Amino acid sequence: MQTGSAADAEFFERLAELNDRFAASLPQTLGRVSAARNAFDTVRPQPELMEELHAVLHTLAGSSATFGFRILGHQARNIEQRLRVLMTFDAVAPEEWAAWLAELDMFVAWALRDPKDAYPNDESAI
Questions:
Q1: Cα–Cα distance measured from residue 75 to residue 79, given in angstroms and rounded to the nearest whole number
Q2: Which of 2, 18, 44, 77 fits a 20 to 30 Å CA distance from 94?
Q3: Is the predicted pLDDT of residue 123 greater than 80, yes or no?
């Protein structure tokens, strides 16, 4: 039978392994976001790309804080929520999609550089 401290140590060791795996998977995950973004047509947005971007951002938003990436999760949630709003409209001007994509580009560039660093122009971090 394990003592409390041995069980705690095992739990935190396992959590550290999961954190490392999450961190190692980020470049691939962000690559999926970039690929979908690069294929995105602002004039005729493809529903399958919107759904893929939403799903990946939703997953990042939900799991990031668990693995020590609180800011990443917060920013993914913000971008996901903006996408969800845009997806509710029957028609969205290409300029609105372009503005959202610019936010997405900034998010991906930041996350690839250092997803635990302060987010650019984030007043909530002050």
A1: 6
A2: 77
A3: no
